[in-house]
Amino acid sequence: MIELFILDAYMPHIKLIRDFARKDCAPLALCNDIPLNTCDDLMQKAGEIGCFNLTEDYEITPGLLAQILATISEVDASIPVMIFTHTAAWSILSEALDGSELSQFQNEIDQTANIPLAFQSYSCLDEIDMPQAEEHNGKFFLKGKVSNLVLANKARFAVIPARIKKYPGVTYFWVDLTDKSTKLKAVATLGNHACGMGDLELDQTSAILIGRKNKGEEYFDNIVGKMAMAAAAISTGIMNGSLKTALEYTAQRQQGGRLINEWPEVQALLGNMGAQVRTAESALHHLCGISNIKDADFIRSACAAALQLCQMACYVTSDGAQLLGGYGYMKDFGQEKRIRDAVQTSMLLGLPAYRKTLLFEMMI
Amino acid sequence: MKTVSKRELQKLLAVGPDIGDILPPNIAGINTSGIGDDVKRAVALARKFNEEVVKPVYKKIDQAVQIDHDYLPWEFIKTANEWGFYTLWIPKMFGGAGWHMASIYIFLEEIASCCCGLSNVIGVHYLGMSSLMTGFNMKVIKKVLGEVVQGEKTGVPCLISLALTEPAAGSDVEENELLEQGKVGTIAKRVEGGYRLNGAKCFISGGHYSTWHITVCYGDRKRPAETFMLFAIRNGMPGFSFGAKENKMGQRACVASELIYEDVFVPDDLVMISPDTFKDTGLSYYDVSNMTIESALAASRPGVGAFACGIARGAYEAALAYAETKMVGGARLINHQYAQNILAEMHKNVAMARLTYIQAAQFTCIWGLFRILHQTWSYRPLRILPRSIQAVLIKPFLNLKLTTNVVRKICYNPKNLKEYQAAIAWASIAKFGISDIGYINCMLAAQLMGVDGTRQDHNLEKHLRDSKLLQIYEGTNQLNRQIVFKHMIARDVDGVEMFAKKAEQSIPTIHMLQQRRASND
């Protein structure tokens, strides 16, 4: 189990999360692994134990968030991706609003019985197509397509970027997904099936302005570091789960008259996986040591870690399946699921190739 | 200008790497005229088939199996049968079209660039055919392939699978030195008129829709390599049944089956190779049993390379199409320099992959399993003479034991061992080298396409799922690296130990490490 720098005060919550991962997520991980999954039981349970109000209830540190995400991701990455998505949406609200304005949105969420918010995957706002917003008598209406909206088929509300006519920048809006003018098409994805994704068509859909017009880029830039660390944590958890399963299997299965883990090639593969998992944990430890999440060093380090660890996870999980031979490719052991989840998770922050150029800009 | 004398040439070529390891046999001077025509026809036919049959159905089949993994794509199999794909590469003397075997690999790449699972529904039948041919029992080959040809005429597909992997023995059954220590469970006991077979096989590609199952089994579980046998098992034989269908990550169109043998009586007529009927060819039966499995897999491994090349190409084509239209940072993605170089890298991977599997295929055809078809005395007559004449001139001899013994004498000839080793090693190079490239190209495409690449309504998602299996089946990539080491490297180095042989001296086991640690304490 990954151990980050967690204050004693948070340990009861961590214990609760560990129990949730072991007792609730693990048994359901495989049966929930169906594209266009409509099963909400696990999401409800996650909501009940407070997974979707981590940021609202108290001053959660990125380290604690990373610990929670990494812990659950060892058994199933879908719930952590829900937490990630909700946290990203809520963080935009927190950046844009304060006091009573923020409480108003909190009340809306509270009334939806622990259902998380929907949010898109992107590394920067000029990477996605976004709807146009029009203002009539102080009210806003959105028209256009919102692609790859994570949790679209489960959430009640979404935080969506749009462009207002005559404004060069981006503005965030709060959209009620049950509005009759919205049309949702669920999208089957490679991984994180229990989480779900969809394309949303908006046709003069009523929307509430979040914060100030034209300030979307600024709000987004302020949450990038925290969310990058969260994505890195999910990838680390997935890698750790893959390594553990491979260690267990290779200690039981025989080949050529001896346990698989007695073959040097297998030892080398496991050692290589272990080296990458420990490197990932070290990167997370480093990020936990930087207290100011808006500090440029934290953002740079977090974005670099996310880029590197997410890619690493795609190959570590592949080795994790390889070590189980044919069984690694079958649904039963969960190793193939980890490959799919790792790749899906690596896209949470947008186009990986483009992110490298963005990281270069941060470095200079 | 300097030249080399004839003597110098011989001397220089004798220094490693061996010229036979690096030159494809056709370039080395063996006549393979006519391959080009078959390759062109195969590529054209595959492209037509992709447009008319594969593209309209492959996503639907994948989704159907995703929902119900017991689903079998019978309609597709019947269509492939109608198009003649299960007999095109059967030699004319057995009633097939007799297309050059080298052309099948390029055909498989074409189909796999669209759907690897469906390409395998066709390709794995030829793994079955290769394993059928590997025992060189001409009478059984004639019988089984005759049914395949008949199946095309009647519209009832008759396919062949190779039943090799067992629940407790994966890589073990592919390499004799592991087999000797492994836990095999498919055992045949001698009875009057044949054998009684018991056991189970798993992960058998195409098992549930095949009619014949070339089954590897053993007479004694303590001496499996020396008691190795190959049986032809037909659906409907009492005691033979199908078990579960595996729920796989990808290549869902091609079922992975469990086969169950409960006291199946196998008459002597369907015993393809066994120690008691094998006539001496100058090789020990231990070597023959290893060669039998190795050469069947070596015929198929360039095919795995072709699948992987198809996937690498499919991923490249998906990324290219995406980059042409996607806008990033105010510009088309294809106009970003990093995107151009990723696409160039993927294109290079496809080109190198294709060269590798084509080279491996040529080795397999000429020095591997299909050697007998490429002798200077056999190649032209078998290629030129029409099926009807071959039926009159050759077919009657296929039932003779003498024919089987003569063919075995040629194919299991110790003098050809070095050429055989080159064919085996190149097949493994193609298998592990290109399957890694297939996975890498999918990951590179994902880098460019982001979350759009993970959508099932885009092509990349399926290629990515399909690609992983290529690194696992037909021997894990780790085992294939060992095969290359064994056949191309270890043979030239003194005192090399591999697998379990003298493992206590050469490879420290965990148990030994623990003992050492305890004694140090």
Write up this protein.
The complex is a heterodimer of chains A (364) and B (521). By secondary structure, chain A is α+β, with helices and mostly antiparallel strands. Chain A has helices at residues 11-28, 41-48, 54-57, 62-73, 78-96, 99-111, 216-250, 264-288, 296-322, 326-329, 335-346, 352-363, and strands at residues 119-120, 132-136, 139-150, 157-164, 171-176, 182-187, 197-210, 254-255, 258-259. Chain A has a five-stranded mixed barrel. Chain A has a two-stranded antiparallel ribbon with strand order 8-9. With 521 residues, chain B is of the alpha+beta class. Among the domains of chain B are: 160-280, Butyryl-CoA Dehydrogenase, subunit A, domain 2 (Beta Barrel); 489-520, no CATH class. Chain B has helices at 6-14, 19-22, 35-67, 74-82, 102-112, 116-134, 138-154, 176-179, 285-325, 337-367, 379-384, 387-393, 401-411, 417-449, 460-470, 477-489, 503-506, 510-520, and strands at residues 160-163, 187-191, 194-205, 212-218, 228-234, 240-245, 256-267, 271-273, 327-328, 331-332. In chain B, strand 9 (327-328) and strand 10 form a beta hairpin. The longest helix of chain B has 41 residues, at 285-325. Chain B is globular and about 80 Å long. Mean pLDDT of chain B is 90; it is low at 502-514. Chains A and B meet through strand 8, strand 9, helix 8, helix 9 and helix 10 of A and strand 9, helix 10, helix 14, helix 15 and helix 16 of B.
